[in-house]
Write a structure and sequence with these properties.
Length: 165
């Protein structure tokens, strides 16, 4: 069932999609890309078969993502933002696992395949990560307040400070 409602006072219309709508929309996008790749394949005179096209297209798409993400992740690591890198990785895995669970339920008949289950699963991770972030921030804040400065203290004489006697 498609639901439409206004989000707050912004008046933004949000349309929630059922899992089959998502799969259908994704399939249409993939189909359009597939047709374009086939036309390029034929126009170029290569006539690669399906397996060869999967090899080339997936390989190129993966390398494109690698070339785009590597400098971003390298910059994040250099700035000591390894938590961001870890979060992105875990978020991706959570999405993949959530979809796999729903597809598995549909395939085996052990449950219903619903997009709201995916949304709730991902929301669960986001909320729990938010709680973790707050607790981690409190821990580091308290630690900074009680942590003693271990730098050597320099004692200045009156003459060095130019103070009147």
């Amino acid at each position: 069932m498609n639901l439409t409602h206004k989000a707050g006072q912004l008046g933004i219309i949000i349309r929630t999609m059922e899992i089959w709508d998502i799969i259908y929309t994704f399939s249409i996008w993939i189909s359009r890309i597939h047709e374009k790749v086939l036309s390029i394949n034929d126009a170029g005179g290569w006539y690669l078969d399906d397996k060869q096209l999967h090899f080339v297209v997936t390989g190129l798409a993966g390398m494109l993502m690698l070339l785009v993400l590597y400098p971003i992740f390298k910059w994040l690591a250099k700035k000591d933002h390894t938590m961001v890198i870890t979060w992105l990785y875990v978020f991706t895995v959570v999405l993949v696992i959530s979809f796999a669970i729903e597809i598995g339920q549909w395939w085996t008949g052990t449950g219903y395949m619903e997009s709201s289950d995916i949304a709730y699963g991902v929301a669960g991770f986001l909320v729990m990560f938010l709680i973790y972030s707050v607790l981690r921030g409190l821990y580091h804040g308290i630690r900074r307040m009680v942590h003693k400065d271990k730098r050597p203290t320099r004692v200045y004489s009156r003459d060095e400070l130019n103070l009147p006697e």
